[in-house]
Structure prediction request, 626 residues.
Amino acid sequence: MDYYTPMKSDSGALRMCAQRVSTVTTVGLVMLALAGCAPGPGTSTTNVGSSSSGGTGVSGNGPTSSSPTISSSMSSASVFVGADPSIPQFSGAPADQSIIDAAMSAAGVSLTPPAAVKTVYVAPPTSYTSTGASQIGSGTQADPYRNLIAAVNNATAGEHIYLEPGTYEMYSMAQAFGESADELNPTNSGTQSDPIVVTTDPATLNWATGTVAILDFQNEISIPSSGRYGAIFPKSWWTFENLDVEHALDRIFWLGNGQYDLIYHNDLHNVTISGTQDNIGIVSVMRLSGGDYNDFIIGNNIHGLAQYDANGNVTSYSMPAPVSDDVNIGCTYSEDDQYYNSNTYLSSFPTNGNSLTIAQLATYTAPPDNNVYFYENAVHGCMRGIANKEPAIGPWYVLSNIIYNVQEGIKMPLSGTPANPLLIRNNIIYNSGAQQLQTGIKLGGAMTNRFLGDADNVTVANNTVIDASSAATLHNGGFNDVVDNNLFVTTGSGVAHRILPGGYVDGGVNTAGQNWFNNGTWPNAIGEYLFPVNASNPYFSAMPDFLQETGWSAMSFSGNLYTSAPTVVLNATPLVGPNLSGTDIDQNATVLSWTKLSLLFRNAATDDFRAGSSPGILATVGSQIP
Prediction:
């Protein structure tokens, strides 16, 4: 039996995509759009290129076989023998693979790094209580360095640092060698032609047998000496790959001291929440003023940000008492620089912000931090999956990730641009583990001192959200947003879309003390972004000049698949503004029966787009469907 549904291609034409299965038994999950359908509308500007190569996915490109293959574009340092189920073994969607291929090419970041200027070998210390001559080493394969901290912190452009498999006890190492901290906090950057690579020695790496370099930061017995709790602070043009990194405090990677970094195919886990820090994430993309990030987080297993007992068991995914701020934590968490509030205005900002053009607005704000790529990661066991704190100018790309055992799947108050929308596509978010999934994808934030909308130019396409108890999507304002061709499965009390107040208000004050909206009257009413920015919008005359100038589009809901009639909940009633009664939130809703829904799921691992092998990252997802 075939089940067909139309999906819109980039050109706007309809393509017919079919799933053919003979039984409703579900082993792995694949969304219909991943079986060859084109992306939804609004994504054409983000398809920045295509690739005819094998791609960068850890299992190659396209459907996987029972034995995953290695992409021909992978570096020798990336090749692994066997497969560890803790590392993602699924392929991303081909359209997403093309974006990653083109973006890496444009940025000069590659899974096949140039030949090493110098190869440095490192092995765990033979003793953590003695620093005699035998502990120093010369950095050759026969006589490796023992002090990994010094090797990384003093590396220069073009060095490839090969770690002998084994456990590196980072705190004990710092004590033995007299290092000021157990952090990997390098002094130097690599270059585009000569990046610095840190990896398990590819000649001995074998994930299946646990033959891998384990960096244990021993947070049970150590407190970082710096104010920025974390473990690894790369500069620019660094690659960290094929490492097992564990037991850090608050963060493993702090990406904000550089750009053009690649975090690839690592197992990053068991990070303890201290309760004394803000903006906590196993991978944290933090502030970098004045330039593009172009950071790539690809093919990692990112999991376990929590409080732990003496036996290493999770006691809570929340901040420890007496701290109660759980807002700014997630498996990946970021804090960006270009968001339109008082932190980024220059002192010359004019008093009447309402009269600014877009070009003028840009001259009075800090440069953007942008272009961050999350692709093919397994993210789980944290309060949030992939999350960001503040609205910022992207674009960011969250593509083909698996997210589960979280309260919120994707939290993105970020904004894209009309030419480069932020793209959230082909992610699978489902309810599994110790935590109930509350919200699948959250756009925008409850900002009350904003110049622009809370999540402008965001495309949410071809995602699958299963059984979010509150809402599959939650929206806090924004214009030019597209929510198309997603699959929303709800078996409990959750709704398809939840809409909160958001957008523009008066009264914000910048660093020079001026009011952002001098005599502005923007009403901050729910649903304002469901109407286009033109004369038909009841608030048009109250909008700032820079907003009127563009002619922004209303949010679009189209072509989504539901298990019941899509429900939209407005969390408050606007005091003024348009009456939303009868508004068709989704212009092309398709409600699936359970029988038809079962046809969206693959029957065999060999057919499953991301099932991988033995048994594959998605083996348990089918059980989430009644």
Q: What stands out?
A: The mean pLDDT is 73. The chain has six helices and 38 strands. The helical segments are 94-107, 148-153, 170-177, 358-363, 545-548, 594-598.
